[in-house]
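Hey, why these numbers?
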Amino acid sequence: MYEKIINEKNELMDAYEKAEEAGDKQRMTEIYEEIKEINDFMATEFF
């Protein structure tokens, strides 16, 4: 499960970089929120 979450987070990080390159601030914000949720989940479940 941990590996699946890390892979999802990495995909989101890649999508964030693409949105940043495109100047899509709204999408960057959406992706940031998704990454934050994953980080919060990982902090409570794994550490």
Q: What stands out?
A: The CA atoms of residues 5 and 38 lie 7 Å apart.
